[in-house]
Amino acid sequence: MNTKQFLWRMAAYHPGLFWKGIFQWLPFNLAPVAAGLLMKVFFDQLTGHSASSDVTWFVVALLAANAAATLGSIRFASRTETALNFRIKGLIRQNLLNHILGQPGARAIPGSPGEAVSQFRDDVDQLADTIRNVNLLVVKTVFFLTALAVLFAINVPVTLGVILPLLAVFALVQTRIIRMSVRLRPKGNGRRELSGFMSEVFQSVLAVKVAGAEDSVVEEFSRLSDDRRKQVSRDRVMSQLMYALLPNLVQIGSGILLLAGARLLGPGKFTVGDYALFVHLLLHMSKFIEYSGTSITQIKQVKGYLRRLNWLLQGSSLDRMIDFKPLDLAESPPAAPPPAVSESRQFKQLQTKSLTYFYPGTAKGIKRIDLQISRGSFVVIVGRVGSGKTTLLRTILGLLPAAAGEVRWNNRRIANPGEFFVPPRTAYTPQVPKLYNGTLKENILLGLPEEGLEQAVYDAVLEEDVRLLDKGLDTEVGVRGVKLSNGQIQRSAAARMFVRGSEVLVVDDMSSALDAETESRLWERLNAREEATCLVVSHRREALRRADHIIVMKDGEIEAQGTFRELALSSEEFRALLDEAGGTLPGNRP
Ligand SMILES: Nc1ncnc2c1ncn2[C@@H]1O[C@H](COP(=O)(O)OP(=O)(O)OP(=O)(O)O)[C@@H](O)[C@H]1O
């Protein structure tokens, strides 16, 4: 989509507000013409160039009416303009959010959250502001043409003599500025890189500290800041150049006018009123030229903003971003539709066939995975670090987009696993779960009613912790759950999974956060849940002992699968893993 198409579509989004804004701004923008004409009448009358009798009070009354119309125009037009501005921002952000949330969870945004937030906030603001400027540009152009017509009607040569040099110098400055600013700004003045970097640093303060990498972080920060400083300075110099040049051009124009006017005043072709009108309008016309310069520059930059948002959309069509949809600006948004549960409670079997995924630009991932999980079974995935366990879980759940193969639920191929594998069909606890700044209860429920909360807390082996916390489940957990231990975060996430009452529970490795005994109690309670079907990554003996089926991963492929006994006899990789984990697994030795 190019700039013209974007602006056109946005103007058509809410044509009522767009045109209303233009009409409401007209009195404000045409006021200088009215005031200039009144001034002309006034001065002509003073100097005896007017045939009319004393019009002073009449002129004063009209000037007051003009000022009142101006105030009214500002009052109503600002409201309309703000309403349109918020609607456009709302529409673009709603569409962006929809797109991001519809992406496979693990690849929802292409870069760091800091970069994405900066685009979501700043670029969308800029795009919406451009529509506002286009709106104003239309009105101000009406003013300019009206003023020009008035001046031409009074004296064509003087008007040409004043306006042409102004336009010529402006055109020269403007082409240079547009060229410079468009060339300088494709990356948003380095702001995106800087916020992306800062966001990564804030998220990994611990990693920086333990690696003793403070100095190199500061070095990188100062390099990025320096780049930004240079870009911003160049940019500012060019735009300020125009602001500095234009007022001077007006002065020059007034000088020319003075010279030309003085010669004409005598013969009576150019009255004092005409002179006052010229000087007055010239000032406002120069402001229009200055404004249009800034607006044109901003319009040229739309291309860059669209390009950056295209990056955030990960190549998906930009049309999606401006898809017209109703917005709930005045009321609360409608409640989210409940998940489709018609097929729930009928789970029989989950299968994958030749499921494959590679991380972009690498040969790493999972290849040709065939597995089957039946209702009520406890399936454990084991494998060395980097063997593909997490990738397998995420690809099954649609959090990563499969490159090949398929996932089947009750023998039906699932076209969009990301949308299908959600509660109450499946629930998932990742290896590093995320908590939000809120109470523990809010973090577990995430909007669900409290029914089943107590049981979920118990099943997650969290009841003792809750009892010891100051305010129990109403304790604030802090940003990303900083007030809880890693084990508590992990079990809170497990409780979040349990409370959703899903048929298949998918759990990534908890061993880094939980001691063996706690994890063992968790599996015990999980097994006691009625007809729980579990797919878990674990190396703990308790999990392996309970497993109905074990899948051994190696280099992204299934190396072997079977019961503990079968694998201990047939799989060298499994035996090696057992040796690494301490060898003996009580109660289930071959
Ligand atoms: N975001 C990523 N980009 C590129 N490669 C990745 C990414 N995440 C994982 N990998 C690679 O894909 C392979 C499988 O990783 P995965 O995390 O699935 O292994 P794992 O068995 O779960 O490891 P762990 O036991 O450490 O959790 C590894 O070689 C890993 O380096």
UniProtKB/TrEMBL annotation:
Lipid bilayer topology: Multi-pass membrane protein
Membrane-spanning residues: 21-43, 55-77, 134-154, 160-178, 241-262
Gene Ontology molecular function, alphabetical: ABC-type transporter activity; ATP binding; ATP hydrolysis activity
Protein name: ABC transporter ATP-binding protein
Gene3D superfamilies xrefs: ABC transporter type 1, transmembrane domain, P-loop containing nucleotide triphosphate hydrolases
Domain ABC transmembrane type-1 intervals: 29-301
Keywords noted in UniProt: ATP-binding, Membrane, Nucleotide-binding, Transmembrane, Transmembrane helix
InterPro entries per the UniProt record, alphabetical: AAA+_ATPase, ABC1_TM_dom, ABC1_TM_sf, ABC_transporter-like_ATP-bd, P-loop_NTPase, Type_1_exporter
Major place of residence: membrane
Organismal lineage: Bacteria, Bacillati, Bacillota, Bacilli, Bacillales
Species name: Paenibacillus chitinolyticus
Location relative to the cell: Cell membrane
GO cellular component, one term: plasma membrane
Domain ABC transporter residue range list: 350-580
